[in-house]
Amino acid sequence: MGQLTGGDPSLLRRINSAVVLRALRTAGSPTLTDLTRLTGLSRPTVEGVVEGLIATGLVVEADAEEGARRQGRPARRFRFRTEAGHLLGIEIGSHRIAVLLSGLDGRVIGAGTKDVSETASADERLERVRAAVADLLRRAGVPRDSLRAVGVGSPGIVEADGTVRLGTALPGWTGLPLGERLRRSFRCPVQVENDANAAAVAEHWKGAARDTGDMVFVMAGLSPGAGSLIGGRLHRGFGGAAGEIGALHLLGREVTPERLLSTTGEPLHPLDEAAVAEVFAMAERGDERAVAAVERFLQRLVHDVAALVLAMDPELVVVGGWAAGLDGVLEPLRQELERYCLRPPRVAQSMLGEAAVATGALRLALDHVEEELFAVEKTVTARR
Predict the structure, then answer these.
(1) What are phi and psi of 376, to 5 degrees?
(2) Regarding beta strands 164-166 and 108-115, do their DSSP bridges make them parallel or antiparallel, or are they unpaired?
(3) For residues 205 and 165, is the Cβ–Cβ distance under 8 A?
């Protein structure tokens, strides 16, 4: 019932519209003749589709080139209106909220951050999200009702509807209906994803994994996590828990990362990034206890990553998170992967740094809009 077939005019119109719109988005300001050549459709079909897209506000007639004006009446040119809507990418972290704003082409036109306490409640943290978004939209002069989609990267195991099934990194996060709460604020589609997954998507889009379809992003920290792409598609696992390497210590290795990095015998607080940075700084200065602590931590990290690499056989491992900028992470990881793995992958540092999660969240929003506009093929982050 209601199934569309190849002979259904509504399906044909939708496909033709998607094909023409995609060509318009990538070709600059093509003429009808250009679009006919690029799409393989007949000129009357292209002309009808373009007029329909103009009516929706997604396409506008472009200004004629000055040189063409002097030569006589120029051919009509058209362009995709990237300003017809806007997208947001949001990172919700333990110490900060980061927000990116783009047009419908995914090009960033604004960014902002807000600090937040690691002890903030879920309500307080979400209020900081709203404040960061409101501030960015105000500075960019973008009305809230122009938002077409919002992507969010959050710690924890995230279900398809945006509920955080398990989130120990943030107070009050486990069981939080994050997607539902945010949809009340934005009144547009909100895509919520695990932060390491979002970072993996970002590195594939704009970072170190742009030419790699099989990759793992490792978010190094006291609660390490990983996101992965298989065959160019984000791999979440059956329940969204793929890549939770921070739980590997439960498999008979009870010593947690925060205890491994301790120089006093008392475990560090999992969210105390300043204390972690201090241990690494002490190690660089030659403090024996700190050197031993860092070596213990790195050994655990590389073992955790090696377990994931053995299971997935990626071409590339990208290391990000707070540990990515600290000396001594990449080379031990390369050496250990060569030792443990049958086919060691390449290892690279994140090219996006602390912008990775928000960038991946923006890509989630862009993918949602592209599925709506182009609706011919699934995107890299589409949920199955």
Answers:
(1) -115, -40
(2) unpaired
(3) no
